[in-house]
Amino acid sequence: MTSTPAEKLEALRAFANDMRDVTAPELSPLLPTYVLPADGDGSRPLAVTGGLLAFEYRHELETAGLWSGWGFLAVVDLDGVDDYLTGTAVLTHEWTHFLEHLAFTSALIAAAPPETLLQDAPPAPEATAEALGARATMPPWTGHDRRYLRLLAHVVYRLQAAGWPGDVDDCFPSRHYLLSRASRYAEHLGTEPAYLADLPICRILETRCPSDYTAFAAADMKHAIRRWHLRDPLSPPVPAERNVVPCQRF
Description:
Layout: H1 5-23, E1 33-37, E2 47-48, H2 53-56, H3 58-63, E3 72-76, H4 84-111, H5 129-136, H6 146-161, H7 168-171, H8 174-177, H9 182-187, H10 192-195, H11 211-227
Parallel strand pairs: 1-3
Antiparallel strand pairs: 2-3
């Protein structure tokens, strides 16, 4: 990876376009890709994305003359990108998040009654103390579960077929999530990435998952819960203790 921030940004933007064309050619004519540098002190993640992040940064994109509509946006801390593989692996990680969001949203729209699609969305609920507390106890792999890792294996397979030098472990620092290496998850998919290589990428998660993969993922996450003494996200929440004042008899 070239050394100056401008050169890094140019290289990552080029890769983002190529990544879209290789892994999701059905989206290429319609979906722009953007990469912006993070503006911060380095305390944030190396990169972030989101289904609506492009709208949040629309002003910055318009100011830079880049805006061409809603699409994939990754905001990357360029100081943390030391080489080409690191930068492109980070983009691949974020692109998989975006594709998972796109697949989930498409499924919701397909399942929704047509008359509800034009209705205004209800206001977002307030972040209550209970909700924040529940989020704080979620396992560290939240958002990086078996669905995400399955999709990541497919994205990386398609990139590797086009000559990308990285692998799934470059895109998924498993120690941060307390799970096994992503390559072990990919192994349990068998030949699925090759078999489904021509399927539109956002339809991968609609297909039946190999039972060997599902069993491995469940066992790996249960092992992590036991080893690190985590709360099982599938178990019912423990009710908070309450101070009860005895009722007086009159």
